[in-house]
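The records we work with from here on pair a chain with its fold. These numbers are not coordinates but entries in a learned vocabulary of local backbone shapes. To see the layout at work, look at the sequence and tokens printed below:
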Amino acid sequence: MAETGNEVERESRRAEPGRREVAAGAAALAVVSMAGVPPADAADAPDNLFVQPGDRIQPVLGKLRKKELRPEMLEVGGRPVESFPFDPAAGVLRRKNRRNRLLLLRLDPGEMDDATRARSADGVLAYSALCTHRACTIKSWMAEKRHLRCHCHLSQFAALQGGRIKRGPAKRSLPMVPLGLDDEGFVVATDGFTGKPGAAKT
């Protein structure tokens, strides 16, 4: 049986979106467009970049907090100081990137192996603070052995031997940041990490 004009018109109205539906769809598209994907250079924001050559080091805890580090500020053989790289030109602490978390300590250069000494600045060493097993933050310092120890699973790393593993379950050495001194005597990074900081899958 042939459709009447009224039936065709009703079907057409059901098939076409109404004004409210069109408006709602447009609004949703606008929201998506405004929210969008973060700008392509968001990952390159100064506070999110990995440590860069020329970065100074700034402790984030204790009496040295917010001070740019000089070697004489650290006690030889003392506890490591939790720190982050600091961009002096931009005045930005690169703390947004968790993998920039560092442990700064000062040891006797005469006790270091050659490779470790070459990456130190007046005895100051910078190690990743993230264990290479599960990326726990390393908090323990075994002063007599000069070992950094992860409290999660008790991996140990030799600070005098470039973060070499002394006890597992970690299977990779602790990455370092090679250091030097700038013209004003501040400790600065001379290169990026010697290996990937944190667990292999982070």
Observations:
- The CA atoms of residues 18 and 191 lie 61 Å apart.
- The chain is about 15% helix and 20% strand.
- The longest strand covers residues 81-87.
